Amino acid sequence: MNFNQICVIGLGYIGLPTSLLFAKNGLKVIGVDTNQSILNTLSLGLPPIQEYGIENLIEHAISKQLLVPRSKPESSDAFIIAVPTPFVYDSSNPSSIPSPDISFIYAACNSIAPVLKKGDLVILESTSPVGTSDLISKQLEKLRPDLKLPHSHSEASDIFIAYCPERVIPGNIFQELVFNDRIIGGITPASAEIATSLYKLFVRGRCISTDSKTAELCKLAENAYRDVNIGFANELSIVASEYGINANELIHISNLHPRVNILQPGIGVGGHCIAVDPWFIVKDFPDQTPIIQAARKTNDLRPKWISSKIRTAIDSFAAKSPHKEISICILGLSYKPDVDDLRESPAVLIAKELCNIFAGKISIAEPFVSKLPDELCSTSNLINFEEALNSCDILVLLVPHKLFLDEISKESLESKCIIDPANFLLSKTFYDEKSQRH
Ligand code: SAJ
What we know:
CATH superfamily of the largest domain: NAD(P)-binding Rossmann-like Domain
Radius of gyration: 24 Å
CATH topology of the largest domain: Rossmann fold
CATH class of the largest domain: Alpha Beta
Distance between the termini: 53 Å
Shape: globular
Structural class: alpha/beta
Largest sheet: 8 strands, mixed
CATH architecture of the largest domain: 3-Layer(aba) Sandwich
Bound molecules: ligand SAJ
């Protein structure tokens, strides 16, 4: 099938890079978003998000009019839906299982229905509960009774629908979008085949065809797998700490076994993927998913355990100089190193708790943001890393940004109390020593 123009709905962390790669490969892309400020920024040829390599791609796509920012879809050969799928808590029942909210997907369907025509391809990329591609097909059938949809007409359908999740890691999105293997889950085999021909325009990894439900569960399974394994590492680090054993050394040595690969304990699991997606499976099968639920709970409790470790360390430092006014700086707020994304960040939760306990004494250094999130604005202030090194007594390393690890040299730290609750520095030293020995 020939694609002349496609339409991408949702210009976020996934939709925008995907649009840019299609545009780089010569396709005209109508980029749709409901957020006017994203559209304005793009129209100026500027990036609305930070991602390595994004500036040149935007400059090229906008100046050549290959990416056209719009607030509504226009008639195209393919529509890619890349909108958020948040989860919602029942506030009246705090112990209830969070539910996926797919209202943005329905809104996207409603917006493309009027311009849909026979032969068009619709692709869902958003992480979604199993069965969502079928729901899209049913919704479009309701809105466009003149068209035959694949869930009810199988190979005789007028429209092709596939679920093609992304698997990229923020910070290396452009590389991974091109070189990772891609799952292509068609409601029908023809849908998978046509979707594959679209992705083949820029994907150099393999395109693996399957049905839409398998693809939907694959995406959730990948992130739940990682959550379970991070949960194991976090649990192990607590056990090691109780024994007085260095968890990083323990894990490093254990991983020398050819079939063991324990992940790194951290301060908790953040971001909009791993901390969210496992719930989509649990919601459908609460009685069959004790391991996935236990991992979620272990990882959600992790920031509390880390906060209490930090509090003990700060109290013990303060007890040594009781007459001194101590100043504390938190290093890092993002959900993981070297990204600007604060969504579901465990560092934000820990910072909030510390700001309440040590009111007026905390500043925060986060080089990837220009302003603190609202919940921290009134209790803390944003300073730069050099200022933190010069003026604070205690540095609390929550996120091991490369900048922090590179700059925290032994000399600059001599007079400081460094609190490193997840042992990021220790593990760095440990591995550096090992690698020098080899
Ligand atoms: N973390 C640890 N220990 C580790 C690894 C990670 O504590 O050993 C923490 C991180 O600090 C972070 C969280 O887990 O808070 C998640 O980070 P991540 O780098 O593991 O993953 P994400 O959320 O940035 O991206 C994941 C990826 N999924 C998998 O690796 C299976 C990515 O490929 C997906 O595309 C993305 O979710 C998504 O969009 O679903």
